[in-house]
Every structure is written in C-alpha cells, then in structure tokens.
Amino acid sequence: MCNRFRANKKGRRNVIVFNAVSKRYENGREALANLDFEMQTGEFAFITGHSGAGKSTVLKLLTVIERPSSGEVFCAGDSLRRLRNREIPYYRRKLGMVFQNHQLLFDRSVFDNVALPLVIAGYSTYDINRRVRAALDKVGLLGKERLSPLQLSGGEQQRVGIARAVVNKPPVLLADEPTGNLDPELSAEIMGLFYQFSQVGVTVLVATHDLGLISRYDHRLLTLHEGRLVEDYQETSEYESGFEEARDHDFEDELDVAHTTGEV
Fold first, then answer.
1. Nearest CA to 213 among 47, 96, 54?
2. Which runs of consecutive H residues, i.e. helices, occur in the chain?
C-alpha cells in the first residue's frame, strides 16, 4: 500500500491519492498530464476546468472505468492501477456516485431506487429497510419512499440520487455536475448535503464547471487546464474546524439514527 495513506501529523489519512498520473488515448490526445493531488478523510473539494480539461477523466479513473497510462491512483486503500477486473465491483462499493441526470429507475419506487446498491450487495431485508429509511431521512425525503421518481421535483430526484449514493456508507462520495440542472437555491441545498457528509468523515469530490456555484464556497478548489493541475486553492480554517467536529462522529452513526423499525 502506498505510504501516502499513512496518517499525517494531525491524525488524518489520505483517502484519495493521484501520484504523477497521466492518461493518453490511442489517438494521441493527452487527457491528464503528471497529475498530483491528495485528499484526506472528511475533506470537501471542487475540481473544475473548461470542457476537456480532465475533470471527467479524474472521475473515470477513480471509478475504474478507465486506467491511467502512467502513475498511480489510490482510493480508499486500494491501488486502482493494480486492481483486478473481478475486484472492481467490490471496490466500487466504497464509492458513492451522484450524477447530473440522477440515473434513476422510473419504473421503480423511490425506496427501490435507494435500496438498489444494498440489494446487489446482498443485505438482509431488515438492514435494507433500516438503511434506506435512514438515508431518505437524511436527505429530507422520508415519507416519499413509495412514490415514483416521476412524481418528484428535479431537486427531490437529485436527493434520491444522493440517498442512493450514501446508503451503503461509502468513505468517498464523487459527484459529476450534480447541480447542472438545478436553480441556485436548490444547488445550495445539494451542496449543503454534501458538506454535511464531509463533516461526518466522508471525502467529497465534486466535479463542476459552474464558477458561480464554486465562488459561493470556501472549499478546496482544484483547477485543471489541458489535463494539468494549474491551481490548488484551499481555505484551511473551515476544513480544520469541521474535521475536529467530525472525528468523534462516525458516518456509521449518522445513517443509523431513527426510523429503524417497520417494513416499507
């Protein structure tokens, strides 16, 4: 295991590590060039850049949709370059993924959409009920679990996607343009949810080109240009104080609260 996963002087661990990562395609296009950055437990960061800057490639590498041409990517304790194909589904259970277009199943209920990762992982009916209700409660949708996603607003559909992403309590949450179809007020609500998850120890990386949205927050900002990291800005005060509050508040506890009885 890469020694960058060791705890630093303040007791935090690097959950995501890009170490001299490059990605070149067969047509010669270089999507990433010698990319280096690290993210720690409970850290919230934006990654931005113009179209083609490399944001999507970063997410594809973290989800092992693609592999780096050179360098090493580590996430949640795994070396993704060395990960075998049969190990990928198990690795992905450590990730929560939120998409711009929600990726919901409209022929299933809200409950069934959120439960899907747990069903695939083989959880018991009791645990599925408990976790789904807790996740829906966290995003403010408890009571709408029997509805179809088509009966929800765009903002509520995105909340269903977030609940599905966190229902299995992943250490890492990745979001790809999660507010692209939402108005500023709803976008702020979604960002507030992401921040809450980071406060209980989840590492959150949000890819977006919405500079107006980014300007409203003081979270760390990674800026890519033609596959290279050209800026790494971090407002440390908010992250420092937030992590101190999160250290003794485990994400397991955050989703294991209330609404644990009864069948849905």
1. 47
2. 55-62, 88-92, 110-121, 125-138, 154-166, 184-199, 211-214, 236-246, 251-255
**CA 18 – CA 38 distance, rounded (Å):** 6
Cα(262)–Cα(168) distance, integer angstroms: 19
**Superfamily the domain 41-67+94-255 falls into:** P-loop containing nucleotide triphosphate hydrolases (3.40.50.300)
Chain-centroid distance, C-alpha 24: 25
Q: Which two tokens stand for residue 251?
A: 């994400």
Domain boundaries, the chain: 41-67+94-255
Beta bridge partner(s), residue 75: 16, 78
Q: What is the pairing mode between strands 14-24 and 172-176?
A: unpaired
Q: Would the pLDDT of 4 be above 80? A: no
- As given in the structure block, the two tokens for residue 25 are 């395609």
pLDDT digit string, tens, across residues 11-41: 568 999 999 999 999 998 999 999 999 999 9
